[in-house]
């Protein structure tokens, strides 16, 4: 199972698709949002993702908040959410510099507003994962959908998966834990393996809320085909996602590390060309431990193993001990088969 986002293949057999999640860390500042796109491009991310909030379409004003917010989310979004015109300018800038612009619509109304921007795929947050009616409508727009699965049970994920996969939607499901940040014992990365098995019509990825990079690297080794990581220009910037965001120096390290991990994931055990020259000196051969006269029978106390590995291999010691020397052998030299009588 694979699909394309703006011409970039996403799925098994392709490099992990790396999404820099700008979330609301720009605090509504267009210049900051654009700078996040520039820094994401410089770091090597495939895409930078924003969020389109229409607060009155997605929540009631008195919706309870979690402890990663210092003010009600409704009020925060009223102050800091990007406008559609700002999204249009960010999208144009991303197109100019050659990084894919992605966006999360937090309602069907937000998705409809984004549609004229030609967003190549929609990201759906964990909070909307169970909102099947909205997801089906968004899927009708014909774009790939990347859906996080934090806070959800396998039964809930299955329901959403079936609703979209049966409609032929290009679908990615992201392993995710909606803690800000999570304790590592809750991350459960091997759920990725289970998701790959349970949801064969979806590409499986990992949306990470830890404050560092380690679990992202591990997710790639387990088969995650997409990685999403929150980013921030300055870790001192206040906001609900501050504690789970990395800066752009860390993002560059993450991209570089993932590409190196991917390059190292082969499964063939062989002697590589660059190992051959090391074998010649690093392996051990049979060496005399004292001078040996012609005609003497080689005893165990007369030979041992030393580098280099260009003589008789040390694992053949039993074939040497007990043979007679056919000529004088100096102390501390490599033995050869020509020094010994035939078996």
From TrEMBL:
GO terms for biological process: carbohydrate biosynthetic process. Residues 285-343 form the AFP-like domain. Gene3D superfamilies: Aldolase class I (3.20.20.70), Antifreeze-like/N-acetylneuraminic acid synthase C-terminal domain (3.90.1210.10). InterPro entries: AFP_Neu5c_C_sf, Aldolase_TIM, PseI-like, PseI/NeuA/B-like_N, SAF, SAF_AFP_Neu5Ac, SAF_PseI/NeuA/NeuB. GO terms for molecular function: N-acylneuraminate-9-phosphate synthase activity. SMART domains: SAF. Pfam families: NeuB, SAF. This is N-acetylneuraminate synthase.
């Amino acid at each position: 199972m694979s699909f394309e986002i703006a011409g970039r293949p996403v799925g098994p057999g392709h490099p992990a698709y790396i999404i820099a999640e700008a979330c609301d860390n720009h605090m509504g500042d267009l210049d900051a949002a654009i700078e996040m796109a520039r820094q994401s491009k410089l770091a090597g991310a495939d895409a930078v993702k924003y969020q389109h909030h229409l607060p009155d379409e997605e929540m009631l004003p008195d919706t309870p908040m979690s402890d990663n917010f210092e003010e009600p989310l409704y009020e925060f979004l009223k102050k800091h959410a990007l406008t559609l015109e700002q999204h249009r300018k960010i999208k144009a800038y991303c197109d100019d510099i050659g990084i894919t612009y992605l966006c999360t619509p937090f309602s069907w109304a937000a998705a409809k507003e984004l549609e004229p921007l030609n967003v190549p795929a929609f990201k759906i947050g964990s909070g909307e994962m169970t909102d099947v009616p909205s997801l089906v409508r968004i899927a009708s727009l014909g774009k790939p959908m990347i859906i996080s699965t934090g806070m959800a049970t396998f039964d809930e994920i299955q329901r959403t998966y079936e609703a979209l996969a049966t409609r032929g939607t290009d679908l990615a499901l992201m392993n995710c834990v909606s803690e800000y940040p999570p304790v590592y014992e809750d991350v459960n990365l091997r759920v990725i393996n289970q998701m790959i098995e349970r949801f064969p019509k979806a590409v499986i990825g990992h949306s990470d809320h830890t404050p560092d990079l380690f679990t992202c690297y591990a997710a790639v080794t387990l088969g995650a085909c997409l990685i999403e990581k929150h980013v921030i220009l300055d870790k001192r910037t206040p906001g609900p996602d501050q504690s789970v965001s990395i800066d752009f120096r860390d993002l560059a390290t993450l991209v570089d590390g993932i590409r190196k991990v991917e390059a190292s994931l082969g499964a063939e055990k062989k002697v590589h060309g660059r190992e051959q020259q090391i074998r010649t000196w690093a392996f051990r051969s049979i060496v005399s431990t004292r001078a040996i006269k012609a005609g003497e029978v080689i005893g165990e106390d007369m030979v041992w193993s030393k580098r280099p590995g260009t003589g008789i291999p040390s694992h053949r010691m039993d074939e040497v001990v007990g043979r007679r020397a056919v000529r004088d052998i100096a102390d501390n030299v490599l033995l050869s088969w020509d020094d010994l009588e035939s078996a």
